[in-house]
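INFO batch 0412 | record 1 of 1 | parsing
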Amino acid sequence: QVQLVESGGGLVQPGGSLRLSCAASGFTFSSYTMNWYRQAPGKERELVATITSAGISLNYADSVKGRFTISRDNARNTAYLQMNTLKPEDTAVYYCNTARARNGGGRYDYWGQGTQVTVSS
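INFO prediction complete | emitting tokens
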């Protein structure tokens, strides 16, 4: 029932901006921490940023600090990632993520399908 659907990716020039959206459904969005991850070809998936249910941003990757901003609109059940001053090394598939505690212990992650961001001249 939980669904996360990313959108907003595309091709952008270095120095440009892009805003990604994550539309959530099937759970009480306003109660959950949301995350953005990214994965470049041949590299490990990395955490880009986190936003708590209270709207506090956390865990920005060092490589994106000062350039990316995570936000959320609980009325629209949507999380966002505003990406400014984009660099070629930002090229990756970007994924929306949230998680819940399993009743029997451990964590269960939910992932969107990903949206491709390509930064190139």
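INFO post-check: The radius of gyration is 14 Å.
INFO record closed
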